[in-house]
Design goal:
The complex is a heterodimer of chains A (234) and B (221). Chain A is mostly helical and 234 residues long. Chain A has 6 helices and no strands. In chain A, helix 2 runs antiparallel to helix 3 and helix 4 runs antiparallel to helix 5. Helices cover 85% and strands 0% of the residues of chain B. Chain B is built from 10 helices and no strands. In chain B, helix 3 packs antiparallel against helix 9. The longest helix of chain B has 31 residues. Chain B is globular. Chains A and B meet through helix 4 and helix 5 of A and helix 7, helix 8, helix 9 and helix 10 of B.
């Protein structure tokens, strides 16, 4: 289906700021509990406390890319540019979170594993995801035509997203060091409370930023796609 | 199917008239292989160990040159648009182009092998299996590469954009192909070659079908 619906005028930024404020409060509370209330971990000591932002960042980065993938599919199916704006916002947010994730992981790995980086499946997959989606953002910058830009970047996002599990499995076969994922059964309650609070904090922060970024993208699109002014009005 | 045949014939004509381009890419790949060896030094044991990685890196770098130019003829005088208005099926156009790129990359890979053997003193114990790995790996590069080539050809900074999009995507191909080639050259006591070939085949199957499905959307705008 050819893109047919122009981006309508978006509503005000109030909802985005509200989500942002709520997320910031949750993150502050969760981080306070994680840093000062939760007990030290028996093997890693205080180094483990970075997990309270690292693990939620990982969950939310994946969520942002998943939302970007969903928006890309929705754009290709419906041709509505509001999905293109959401797609752009989600991919940007995912790239920021994936970048943060790599930095947090490196900060944690240095005292724990003795190296800044290891070629472990999850680290490598995150790095690959980071670069793959940066490429998509670059593609968006280098294409002037809004219809081509939206369609091509949606196609590239679908391919990159489908590629992620294959990258993960290929690197897992290649080399593995990262510990297995924790589940609520293996994490005791004092550790779980700040983890969940921060997970929701980052989720709301992310939702707020995506909402605000989508609004900017829609305003830009409506300006880009507006018909040129008649001679007399210039 | 008739459309695919016609598109393949078109690719054959295009390729047979652009042999100089293929030769230039081969020289580029050979130069890359030569230059890589300077990073390691004249240590034959080390060179033998890294030879499979260097072979695939040379092929990957060369692939960006062939892929970036693969839609040159179609873009001149808006020939691709003309073909779509015939109307030729985008499906046939994509698969013909991807098959042509695949064949070109496989030939390039095969041509680089003797040079790798000579420069790095690599052992070639199972040449037919190596041909299979080169064919599977090249298929993994050509399917997404052909789709991205048609996009980037119409964008600004296409020479930068194609590798930027393609390289992260083909990490599984690079890992699996290098591993499989290493096993073939350095020995495979655990019989692991099958799993790497399976990973390559899975990647190929997913990307050949997905890219073929999406190509129509890319060219219809």
């Amino acid at each position: 289906m050819a893109p047919s619906v122009l981006a309508g005028r978006p509503s005000g930024p109030g909802a985005g700021y509200a989500l942002l404020a709520f997320g910031a409060v949750l993150l502050a509370v969760g981080s306070y509990i994680g840093l000062f209330v939760a007990p030290s971990e028996s093997f890693m000591g205080d180094v483990y406390r970075i997990m309270y932002v690292h693990v939620p960042t990982a969950w939310n980065a994946l969520l942002a890319f998943t939302f970007g993938f969903g928006s890309a599919v929705a754009f290709l199916l419906k041709g509505d540019f509001k999905w293109d704006a959401r797609h752009e916002a989600a991919v940007e947010m995912g790239v920021v979170l994936a970048g943060l994730l790599c930095c947090q992981g490196a900060i944690w790995a240095r005292p724990t594993w003795g190296v800044w980086w290891d070629w472990d499946p999850r680290l490598t997959t995150t790095a690959v995801m980071f670069f793959a989606f940066i490429g998509i953002l670059a593609l968006r910058r280098f294409v002037e035509d809004p219809v081509k830009r939206a369609t091509w970047s949606a196609v590239a996002t679908i391919i990159a997203y489908v590629d992620v599990p294959i990258v993960y499995f290929s690197v897992r076969w290649w080399n593995s060091l990262h510990q297995m994922q924790s589940s609520p059964e293996t994490v005791s309650a004092p550790f779980l409370i700040p983890l969940r609070t921060n997970a929701f904090g980052i989720l709301f922060l992310m939702a707020g930023l995506i909402t605000l970024r989508t609004r900017i993208a829609r305003l830009r699109l409506s300006q880009e796609m507006a018909p040129p002014l008649p001679e007399a009005a210039r | 199917m008739r459309q695919l045949g016609a598109a393949l014939y078109k690719e054959w004509l295009l390729q047979s008239r652009a042999l100089a381009q293929l030769l230039a890419v081969l020289v580029f790949g050979a130069t890359a292989l030569l230059l890589f060896s300077f990073a390691v030094g004249p240590n034959y044991e080390l060179l033998r160990a890294v030879a499979p990685g260097f072979l695939w890196l040379a092929l990957l770098l060369s692939s960006t040159l062939t892929l970036a130019e693969s839609f040159q003829a179609e873009m001149e005088h808006r020939a691709l648009e003309g073909q779509l208005l015939l109307p030729a099926s985008p499906w046939a156009l994509y698969y013909a182009k991807a098959l042509a790129n695949w064949l070109q990359l496989t030939l390039l890979g095969v041509a680089l092998v003797p040079l790798m053997v000579a420069l790095y003193d690599a052992r070639l114990s199972r040449p037919l299996a190596l041909l299979g790995v080169i064919a599977l790996g090249s298929a993994g590069l050509s399917a997404p590469g052909t789709l991205y080539a048609v996009m980037t050809h119409q964008a600004r900074s296409r020479q930068t954009l194609l590798p930027l999009l393609l390289f992260p995507l083909v990490v599984p191909v690079l890992i699996a192909a290098v591993k499989a080639t290493s096993l073939l050259m350095l020995g495979d006591p655990m019989e692991q070659i099958g799993s790497w070939a399976l990973l390559l085949a899975t990647f190929d199957a997913i990307h050949w079908s997905l890219c073929g499905l999406l190509f129509g959307r890319v060219v219809e705008e």
